[in-house]
Amino acid sequence: MFTMIDSYSFGKIIIDGEEYNSDVIVYSDHVNNNWWRKSGHILSKEDLREIVNHKPEILVVGTGSVGLLKVPGKTKGYLDEKGIELVVEKTPEAVNIFNKKIEEKKNVVGAFHITC
To answer: Regarding predicted confidence, which is higher, 111 or 2?
Structure first.
């Protein structure tokens, strides 16, 4: 089963027909709707343990509707060391990229900040 994102709007993301109103991590077969980061709008490597353990080829990060979530160089380097391709975009574009990678049957995980 491949999880698809049906739609996104500020503060709301619909995945396989189910609505979520908090930040999410989307795997090919399930959704973690309890995604909290150590430092709110900064994505650190500590925030990615669950994702790294899943061993995706690609991690798509949605930085929010206006891009407030930041991905520091240390975090990018950590993912590179793990062999995980990183795609960082504002959430509307990140959703489109995630769905495209799913359609291409890629092993992709999406981490989406759904507000600012």
So the answer is: 111
Domain extent at residue 40:
5-112
Pairing relation of β-strands 85-89 and 31-32?
unpaired
DSSP state of 42: B
In what helix (H) or strand (E) does residue 69 lie, and over which residues does it extend?
A: none
Burial class (CB in 10 A: 0-12, 13-18, 19+), 36: exposed
**Token pair 């989307």 in the structure block, residue:** 26
Measured in whole angstroms, the distance separating CA 113 from the mean position of its chain's CA atoms is: 8
CATH of the domain at 40: 3.40.1230.10
Q: What is the pLDDT of residues 50-106, one digit of tens each?
A: 999 999 999 999 999 999 999 999 999 999 999 999 999 999 999 999 999 999 999
Residue whose pair of structure tokens reads 């900064």 in the numeric block: 42
For residue 61, what are the β-bridge partners? 88, 111
- How many domains, in total, are found in the chain? 1
